[in-house]
Amino acid sequence: MKHDRTVRIAWHLLIGLIYLFLLAPLIIVLIVSFDTRPYLSFPPTSFSLISYARVLHNPFFFRLEKPVC
Amino acid sequence: MRVSVRKQPSWLQVLLILPGVAALVVTFVFPLLWLARTSLQPTTGHILSLHAYVRLFEDSFYWWVIGRTIFIGLLCVVITVPMAFPVALFLARSQSRWRGTLTALAIAPLLTSTVIRTYGWMVILGRHGLINTTLVWAGILAQPTRLDNGPFATVVALVEILLPYGIISILSHLSRLDAELEQAASLLRARRLQVLACLAASLPARVDDSLAPCLRSRNQLTRDTSVDGGGRVFVLATEIFNQTTIALDWPFAGALSITLLAFFGIFVALYQRILQHVESQS
Q: Residue A11: closest CA among chain B residues belongs to which residue?
């Protein structure tokens, strides 16, 4: 039935919107993590994995002993 | 399949409960008593004094803060429950193989740190954030307006973090009674909306389950999300934080905490009473 379908679509749309609200900050942080600029700005102008590379190259994240400061 | 449950001797029950109770006493009851004791600490001489409470209740600012705290709390619950209900219903009903993933996503905000969520909200609500930019671009606003650093941001961030709690507790309730009730309603040729109403009507009994953690978690969270409030949203939790870390007035902070706790107690008790009343009516 046509009516049923409209209800279904509206229902899924509602769920989608609530999920979007729920996950919005996480999605934003995920997107921003690919940005190259050192300050907080949205949307990113360029995408790169450089921040991830820096995490992987940071020895402090992978040391078991307490870092000497 | 029925598992026979034989009645265990009572000493065994006590023994099994003991570790949990002991942990609760050490981590929860003791600090609370210590807090109550601190709130009664005198400035000079006496053993105990109520001066912190007198100061609190004489100052109209704190009455305003208490009212504000209650208002924001209720507002959050009122927004959160209607938002959590559809998602819980959807998850309870879903036959999709994505159901597990979607459930995990629904509680994802709980698994991330407050800093990350706040960071995200700053990008969305900030002066040059997503919403402002979009509204200005669409011509709805002439200039970006202030969305962060205010009660609006606090409520948004609180609702976001309360949603997972709401979804989980409503979901657990729905999965317990859902199917039969719904089938019964359908058999009686109820329309879809009526079925929904029927489900919703069964809800209050368990909303208290969700309400209690909501209220409780709220008080720490208000402190966390005061980052969004930028020191402009005064609620009890932020005041307590200020009194302990900035003013270093521990007795007063203690009095504030105990008052906050008392208010939550009153609220939960009131809710239970209303619920009992409603249930005895129907």
A: B86
